[in-house]
Structure formats: structure tokens, C-alpha cells
TrEMBL record:
Residues 2-176, 183-400 form the UPF0261 domain. Gene3D superfamilies: Uncharacterised protein family UPF0261, NC domain, Uncharacterised protein family UPF0261, NN domain. PANTHER family: UPF0261 DOMAIN PROTEIN (AFU_ORTHOLOGUE AFUA_1G10120). This is Tm-1-like ATP-binding domain-containing protein. InterPro entries: Tobamovirus_resist_UPF0261 (IPR051353), UPF0261 (IPR008322), UPF0261_C (IPR056778), UPF0261_N (IPR044122).
Amino acid sequence: MKTIALIGTFDTKGKEFLFVKELIESLGFNTYTIHTGVFKPTFTPDCSNCTVMEYAGEQLEKVQQKNDRAFATEVLANGMEKLLPQLFKEGKFDGVLSFGGSGGTSIATPGMRQLPIGVPKVMVSTVASGNTEPYVGTSDIMMLPSIVDVAGLNSISTKIFTNAVFAIAGMLQFENKVELEQKPLVATTMFGVTTPCVQFATSYLEERGYEVLIFHATGVGGRTMEQLIEDGYIEGVLDFTTTEWADELVGGVLNAGPNRLEAAGRKGIPQVVSLGALDMVNFGPVDQVPAKFEGRKFYRHNPTVTLMRTTIEENEQLGKIIAEKLNLATGPTTLMIPLQGVSALDAVGQDFHGPCEDRTLFEAVKQEINPQQVTIYEENLHINEQAFAEKAAEQLIQIMKK
């Protein structure tokens, strides 16, 4: 019989969580209840708030005496981040469910993020329709808007609670039993303007027995790939689209943080890297582009995405950054340079075609790269040409086999 971990503040929302607990058990599942409130719970949990706080190095009495909501939330969140994965390793539960406002969501999700991908994780939250990245991160947490506050049992809340229970029950009951053939996992990065390149490379790799995971280079996509590499899922990396570094440098909306391009190098994972879409920085609708960029070259990708061409100076900096990251590599690393353009917009006759900008990028990265650590191939091709994509894929296969 499967067990669902139920995380919540059983002191202030005991009635609501008791309703959910009883519903779960009526469906034939066990529950493992974890109290994340500060005070005495309405019902006896399987795991007390004392235990949660001890995992954060704090005592319940101290937290209660401090009478500081923000401090208590931080302690409980830190405790859950360490405790929940430990409970999962001990086989205490198979999936996890929680309900809460911004505080409850902040407490439950750090632990959920530490669970393996594929473990059912459902968070019913009052903040589910806003920016959920701080809660979801690079995990597969499913967030469901609570519609009304998680406070009281009424015709709306009970329906939402019931749907959430049925959702996680279905995930656990109808678990996929089909076992796919185990193949070496390759991660690659794609943007709309590098799609042909990635499609050609993916077909080439799949025909030769590799499974390809494609990550959309939208910030969270790059971070997710880096996390999966850290977690040991990935055996080879074909990082065509390093555009997130342009947003990180210039101030675009799709940056992946300062550690992008580091995970494979640290882990010694074979990697082939290119310079895809470094010709552009991403913003939202055109009226949301910061005023300081007035006068720059723009391209309206769609009503909600505005692209800005990177300058010669920015490309010089980007080349140095890419080289710096690749020089950290402890495993086989190759840089593939497409001399005829780095995106669909950076081609003859297209809006971002910039031979001077590209040349600056290429020369900067070559000048800073450590040739003892990184092999460089310059191809007189555009990044989206089939020949370029297949050469990069073949190079990755060769260094993976070594």
C-alpha cells in the first residue's frame, strides 16, 4: 500500500488537513503526517515540529519564545529541506502533498525540491498563479492554485483539496510500469533560433543509440540541465545554445545565473559546447524593455518577447566568460565555433546578422581558452546547418567513448 506524506501547519489549519488525511485514507492509501506549525497540532502527527526544527539545528522552545514568524518559517523550511529527503530514503512515503499560503509553501517546497525527479509532489498554494520559480526551482513540483485561502472548509476549498488528493492518488496508483531501453543520456540546449541545429543533432544521436534530453535555454531550462548533471543523470552534454549568458551579462529576463556552464566541467562529463544565440538578449513586451537600451537594435519575436542584438563590446565579454567557464573543465571538452552565424537571426539577410560582432566573440573566446584543456573546432558553417550539427554530435560521441 502506497503512503502519501502530508505536510502542513496542523496547529492553525488542523481541520483542513484532517479532512485531507481522512480523504487520502478513504482511497486506500496510508498517510505520513509532518507538522510544520509552531504550536500544538490539532491531531497527533507522525513527525513532530520538534523533529523538523532539530534538523535545522534549532529547538522548539526557542522558536516559540522568539515569536518571530519570519524566523520560524526559515527554521522550518531549513528543517524540511534536510528532513524530507531523509524520510524518503527511509521509505516513509511514496509521494508528498501539502497545502498553504506563502508561508506554508515556503516551508514545504524546499524539501520537495530535494526529492528525486518522478516522485509525485503536489503543492496546493495561494501563490500558485504568480511567479512559482522560487518554490519549484528546477524540480518537478506540481503547483495547484487554491483559489480561496487554505482556511476553512467550504464548497470551493473542499473541491480543490479533493482534486489535489485525487491527482496524487492517480499518480501513485497508475504508475508507469513500462521499462524503456536504457541508453546513454545526452543533454542538449535549444532556442527557437537554434532549433534546426538541435533537431539534426538529436536525430544523429538517436540513430546511434543515445537518448537525448532537450532543454529550452530560458533560464530555468539551463539551471535544470545543470542540476541534472550535478545529480548524475547525464553522461554527455551537447550545449549548443549558451544564450543564457547574454541575458546574465546584459540584464535580460532569461538568465540562468552565474554558474551556468560549470556542472559538466566540475563532474568531468564529456561536453561539446557552442555559441548558439549569443547574438541576442531577451526581454518581455517591447514596452517593458528598460529605457537604458533605447537606440539598440531590436527584433520583435512575438507580442511577449523582444530580442536585442548584442554589441561588439558585449560579445568580447561573452567570449571571455565562455572561455573562463570551459577552462574549469576536468573532463573532455570541445568548443565548436560556427563561423557563418550563431542563430537563425544571425545569418546573411537577417535582422541580427553581425560579422563584426561574431568575429569579436570568436576571437575573444579563442584568445582566453586553455588549449591544453579545451579542443576548438572552427567550422565555416552556420550553426543551423546539418553538417555543423552532425559534426558536433559525432565529436561528442567520440569523446564519450574515450
